[in-house]
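Progress against Task 2.4 (sequence-to-structure conversion) is shown through the following example record, which the project officer requested during the mid-term review.
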Amino acid sequence: MSAPFWETKLLAEMSEAEWESLCDGCGRCCLLKLADDATGEVLHTAVACRWLDLEACRCGCYPERHARVPDCIEINAANVETLGFLPASCAYRRVTEGRGLAWWHPLVSGDPATVVEAGIAVAGKVVSEAGVHPDDLDNYIIRWVET
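Structure tokens generated for the chain above:
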């Protein structure tokens, strides 16, 4: 039996389908972030982009997300190493760092529900930006337990 594609290919070598399947559907990259002016640290909030489906943890406008949300950052093979906001659990980051995929990743477990069961997904833990005033974002700063 051959090794899975994420163990044999660099991110830049993956097909679009392979690349997209690496997304575990946690929704963490869709959380609004703040930068600490003093330290430069990126702070995650428990506030999600208005387009994130809070139950399914998937973008509701994925094909046109950059047109609808101009500051939505595209994650790609060229920039994944420089995106400090990606959690340590992110498959793109894990593969880039040579750590492979976690047991709960759907490509390993065969079940998308394991992302929620493992506590990685934001489902049930965040609110939509549609209900939060931008001046109140600092009241929603959170720290995720990393895996």
